[in-house]
Amino acid sequence: GIQVEQSPPDLILQEGANSTLRCNFSDSVNNLQWFHQNPWGQLINLFYIPSGTKQNGRLSATTVATERYSLLYISSSQTTDSGVYFCAVEHRVGYKLSFGAGTTVTVRA
Amino acid sequence: DTGVSQDPRHKITKRGQNVTFRCDPISEHNRLYWYRQTLGQGPEFLTYFQNEAQLEKSRLLSDRFSAERPKGSFSTLEIQRTEQGDSAMYLCASSGEDRFGQPQHFGDGTRLSIL
């Protein structure tokens, strides 16, 4: 199966700081999604980004499919950004998602 | 668009009992997926439906697990003779279909605890 590696595993930020999360994957994929899992366990869609760059408020993401990695940028972090960020890649056959182990982000006031 | 709905939110049961979970996808989404998430891990794929057809099952889905989507709308996931290792969050997702691809949208999950 496709291996998905996320780094760093844990990130502690001071409110207002910027950060970059990385996702590497081992094979060609159809698409890539970034999720935020809040403390209540809800998986919130952040980006659907097979390639290129997208921005949504203080968050942006870049996927370089030919080099098999994606980056999630958090700017001017807020305490509400705390939680676990998952990268998931969609297999070319069957459309299932394979998830990384996540990056746990803690933003301190 | 009311989102993916899962019921119940929590289920506590004794080892050896059978449990059934329900998932209502976003209307008009023809693809439906089940995933399982254990503490500290990312979700893992269990099975996938396109309309009413179950097209793929993970090796994680032992013989005690069965999933159905009888009319291509809601789906059920049943676990028979539950074991301690079945304790997890069970997540359902749905997506539409077009040639550019569609993102998967997740429900809030059913948290299963086996006593």
Topology:
The complex is a heterodimer of chains A (109) and B (115).
Chain A: E1 4-7, E2 10-14, E3 19-25, E4 31-37, E5 43-48, E6 52-56, E7 59-64, E8 69-74, E9 83-90, E10 97-99, E11 103-108
Parallel strand pairs in A: 2-11
Antiparallel strand pairs in A: 1-3, 3-8, 4-5, 4-9, 6-7, 7-8, 9-10, 9-11
Chain B: E1 5-7, E2 10-13, E3 19-24, E4 31-37, E5 44-50, E6 53-57, E7 65-68, E8 75-79, E9 88-95, E10 105-106, E11 110-114
Parallel strand pairs in B: 2-11
Antiparallel strand pairs in B: 1-3, 3-8, 4-5, 4-9, 5-6, 7-8, 9-10, 9-11
Structure explained in plain terms:
The complex is a heterodimer of chains A (109) and B (115). Chain A is an all-beta fold and 109 residues long. Chain A has no helices and eleven strands. In chain A, a hairpin with a 2-residue loop joins β6 and β7 (59-64). Chain B is mainly beta. Chain B is built from no helices and eleven strands. In chain B, strands 2, 4, 5, 6, 9, 10 and 11 form a seven-stranded mixed beta sheet that branches. Chain B has a four-stranded antiparallel beta sheet with strand order 1-3-8-7, with no helix packed on it. In chain B, a hairpin with a 2-residue loop joins β5 (44-50) and β6 (53-57). Chain B starts with a strand and ends with a strand. Classes of the chains: A mainly beta (109), B mainly beta (115).
Please name the defining characteristics of this protein.
heterodimer, A: 109 residues, mainly beta, six-stranded mixed beta sheet, five-stranded antiparallel beta sheet, B: 115 residues, seven-stranded mixed beta sheet, four-stranded antiparallel beta sheet, 11 strands, 49% strand, globular
Based on Cα principal axes, name the global outline of chain B.
Answer: globular
Q: Sheet bearing the most strands of chain B, described?
A: 7 strands, mixed
Q: For the record, give the distance between the C-alpha atoms at the N and C termini of chain A, rounded to a whole number.
A: 40 Å
Summarize model confidence as the mean pLDDT of chain A.
96
Order of helices and strands of chain B: EEEEEEEEEEE
Largest interface: A-B, 24 and 25 residues
**Assembly status:** heterodimer
Task: List the helices and strands of chain A in order.
Answer: EEEEEEEEEEE
Query: What's the total count of β strands of chain B?
Result: 11
